[in-house]
Each structure stands twice: as C-alpha cells, then as structure tokens.
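Our consortium's second objective concerns turning raw sequence data into structural hypotheses that experimental partners can test. To show how far this objective has progressed, the report includes one record in full. It was chosen at random from the queue rather than selected for favorable results. The single chain below, 110 residues long, was entered without modification.
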Amino acid sequence: MIGLFNECFPPVMDGVSMTVSNLAKNLHEQGHDLCVVTPDEPGLQPSKYPFMVCPYFSLPVPMRHPYRYGLISHAGDMASRTLVRSWADISEEVADRYMHLIARKQRKIV
C-alpha cells in the first residue's frame, strides 16, 4: 500500500492538495492500493474517492483559512492512528537500513 501523507486535501484548493489528489487518482487508475492521510477538513468526503482517505483530528490555523493543523495524537479514529503508526514504523526501518547502507559504503561499518 502506498501512503500519501499531506497537510491538506480537497476541498482545500491549493497546489499541494491538487497535486496529491491528482497523484492519488493516477496511482489508483494504475492499479495501486493507496491511502491519503490528511487532517480532517470541513466538507471533506472520504467516501467519494475510489481510494482510501484517512482524515484525522485537526484544528483551524489562526489567520490561515482554510488551512488546518492536524493532531494525529488526538485522532479518534483507531484505523487512522494504526495506519500512521504502521507507516511510521516502516519509515523508521527503511531509514535505518538506508543509513547502515551509507555507513557501509563509507567503510564505517564492517
């Protein structure tokens, strides 16, 4: 599964949300299983997308409408928290392996 983690998604209309939306649609059309993880936004309708959208708890950013500050630690949706934790574990493992590979190439680890 591909995870797309971003700070906004439609109905917010900006470059990031449109890029992630288009990328998700294209990946889905190519047959990839994916999930967009994004702060919950008033008007967001996850069920209208043909791929999984996992919104999590968010608060408005003062003086920056329509942007929101996502608080995954306050997510009420267990599926969203589990997904984010799973991706975090995978990312940590990948980063650890990558750092060991770099160190080996620099002959710091034998």
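The partners drew two points from this record. The CA atoms of residues 73 and 86 lie 14 Å apart. The radius of gyration is 17 Å. Both points have been shared with the crystallography group to help prioritize constructs.
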